Amino acid sequence: MAYTNGNLALQPKRKPEQQPVKETKRVVKVRRMIPPSEMLRYMASVLVVVGVLVLIISRYASDYRMELQIKELNASYKQATVEVKVLQGEVAKLSDPAVISKKAKELGMAPSGDNNDKGEENGQESGR
Predict the structure, then answer these.
(1) How much is the mean pLDDT over the chain?
(2) Region for residue 17 given its phi and psi (left: phi exceeds 0; alpha: psi -120 to 50; beta: otherwise)
(3) What is the distance between the alpha carbons of residues 56 and 51, in angstroms, rounded to a whole number?
(4) Which residue has the higher pLDDT, 123 or 70?
(5) What is the rounded distance in angstroms from the CA atom of residue 85 to the CA atom of residue 59?
(6) CA-based torsion, 37, 41, 43, 47: positive or negative
(7) Is the dihedral of CA 42, 47, 48, 52 positive or negative?
(8) 118 CB contacts (<8 Å, ≥6 apart)?
(9) pLDDT value for 6
(10) What is the dihedral of CA 17, 23, 24, 27, to 10 degrees?
(11) Is the per-residue pLDDT at 55 higher than 50?
């Protein structure tokens, strides 16, 4: 047999002493329920926060709608002012006495100075 007492590398491994198996108790924690009054408080606070957020968002939406209406009204105002200027130009053009007399002649009307003479010719007497 080989000499093994002097060399540590050749010493057989010793088995550790087996320790007795410890029995562990498993602790099961029962989850505690939230009391109904506290749950109602939480729900009420969540509803209040949601209500405030809805109010804020609705205000922003109404502001946006109002700005859109203002832009539309400004556009229609600008269009109306352009139409008014065009119509004022037409009124100025049509109120010119030369245009009025020309239009009257086209329609067969006579100047106002000729009314008395024509009235006497048609058999109407002027105060006789």
Answers:
(1) 82
(2) beta
(3) 9
(4) 70
(5) 39
(6) positive
(7) positive
(8) 110
(9) 60
(10) 180
(11) yes
pLDDT for residue 48 is more than 60? yes
Q: What is the 3-state secondary structure (H, E, C) of the chain?
A: CCCCCCCHHHCCCCCCCCCCCCCCCCCCCCCCCCCHHHHHHHHHHHHHHHHHHHHHHHHHHHHHHHHHHHHHHHHHHHHHHHHHHHHHHHHHHHCCHHHHHHHHHHCCCCCHHHHHHHHHHCCCCCCC
- Smallest CA-to-CA distance from 49 within 59, 41, 61 is with 41
Judge whether 53 and 61 are in contact, CB under 8 Å.
no
Q: Which two tokens stand for residue 105?
A: 């002649």
Q: What is the mean pLDDT of residues 29-58?
A: 93
Q: What is the band of 22 on the pLDDT scale with cuts at 50, 70, 90?
A: confident
